[in-house]
Amino acid sequence: MGTCEEKIQPSFGISLFTLISVILILVVGITVFKADIHALLLISLSFSCIVSFRLGYSFDNLMEGMERSLTEILPAMMIFILIGVIIGSWIMAGTVPAIIYYGLKILTPLWFLPVGLLLCSLTSIATGSSWGTVGTVGIALMGVGNGLGIPAHITAGMIVSGAYFGDKMSTISDTTNLAAAAAGTNLYEHVKSMSYTTTPAYIITLILYTLIGFKYSKGSVNKEEVDLIVNTLGTNFNMNPIIFLPMIVLFTLNIKRASAVPSMIIGAAAAVVIAIVFQKATINAALLSLNYGYSGNTGVEIVDKLLNRGGIQEMMWTFSLAFIAISLGGVLQQVGFLDRLIKGFIGNVNNPGILALIVISTTTLGIAAMGEVYLSIILNGNLYREEFKKKGLKPNMLSRLLEEGGTLMEIFIPWSTGGAFVAATLGVENFKIAPYALLSIINPILSIVFSFLGIYVLWESKPIKKIIRLKKKTV
């Protein structure tokens, strides 16, 4: 097909209709018809293309948008594949089983949630990856929580809170760097600005998990089940502390700010060597774990359910989901639906509280529409950057809001790449995790409240702030 010569820019009404229709297709399809999410995304993509054809866009035009979005996200997709490699190799090496083994020996129901939160936070800060944390330490903690009698959805919420805290605050996180770049601010200024709202939110989250832990501290731990898991792991894996080496290697490389892809490959390679030397795995079995994940038969169902996972192939379900979702996002971005909506929303708004609410909301809506946090952060950052300058606000105020509406919120959207990955990896549905993903709930709310109260609103200079206030009075 050739390119159409004349294209009509979508109006605010058409843009809003298209976005609402896409979200309704996904939400109604999932909740009412229990339809497959891949099929729903294909329907949404087809619907968006039909509306775009009516505006004068050819299929070639739309393909250009899809290709550009997929190209932009390619590095993240590569990391996505490598997370499957890490999970499979670290289980084969005994690294993940060791966390479960020692965790069940040391932790109690009372302190499991706060200690688990801190462990996931430190892991994610060191690695810069929420997905990597969920797929390794997260899987292990699900096993520990199960043995201690903590409900799976509460454990999953705690893991998500810790993993996304580190992803948000780590200087080597892709979303952290992306948000700073999209808003046009310095990376360290961005992290500093996030600390103003994230620190109090994290303290509140830690306190709440501690209080929830008190509720389960009175319950009796199923000692027989715990002993069964510990003994089974001890029998099937060599628990020599050296098996923590793959984790130490990856942490060290990330702390030294080495590139994520080679760091993950080295971390997986270290695990393969450990598996062969200490777990007596054959070379073929160790290499197969990279593609198909760990596959073992301990004779204990609960242990096999925890450990038989990982590998490139296990990631293919979510990878294909991401591919379709990002293609959909490419169409919406190419035609300008989201651009028109965001410009329509922000208008002449100058109140920092309303601005915070709009940016956080549209960034979350961007994930819902495009299925991908990276695209939403890039789009919203580029669209709001100049507006924030005109209103006298620092770019690191915008970058902070992008992460609060982006990084923290994808867990609530089942068809987003992050939401789908977490649910599939931890084996808990998103709507069950959502009420206990406390940091993702508290942090954005706190940020909006602070902005309305004028707390930690980052103005370029006080004179500009006064001018804006005077303009508001005269209107």
Topology, element by element:
Blueprint: H1 12-31, H2 37-54, H3 59-93, H4 95-106, H5 109-127, H6 130-148, H7 152-169, H8 174-183, H9 187-217, H10 223-236, H11 245-255, H12 260-278, H13 283-292, H14 301-307, H15 312-335, H16 337-346, H17 352-370, H18 373-390, H19 395-405, H20 417-426, H21 430-433, H22 438-453, H23 462-474
Helix pairs in contact: 1-2, 1-16, 2-15, 3-6, 3-12, 3-13, 3-15, 4-6, 4-10, 5-6, 5-7, 5-9, 6-7, 6-20, 7-9, 8-9, 8-18, 8-19, 9-19, 9-22, 11-12, 12-13, 15-20, 16-17, 16-18, 17-18, 17-19, 17-22, 18-19
Mind explaining what this structure looks like?
- Helix content is 77%, strand content 0%.
- The protein has 475 residues and is mainly alpha-helical.
- The chain has a domain at 72-314.
- Helix 5 packs antiparallel against helix 6, helix 8 (174-183) runs parallel beside helix 18 (373-390) and helix 9 (187-217) packs across helix 22 (438-453).
- The N and C termini lie far apart (50 Å).
- The model is unreliable at 463-475 (pLDDT under 50).
The parts where pLDDT drops under 50 for at least 5 residues are 463-475
Decide which structural class fits the backbone. Answer: mainly alpha
Order of helices and strands: HHHHHHHHHHHHHHHHHHHHHHH
Number of helices: 23
Summarize model confidence as the mean pLDDT.
88
Bulk shape: globular
Taking the alpha carbons of the first and last residues, their distance comes to 50 Å
Radius of gyration: 23 Å
**Beta-strand fraction estimate:** under 5%
Number of strands: 0
State the major sheet: none
How helix-rich are the residues, as a percent range? over 70%
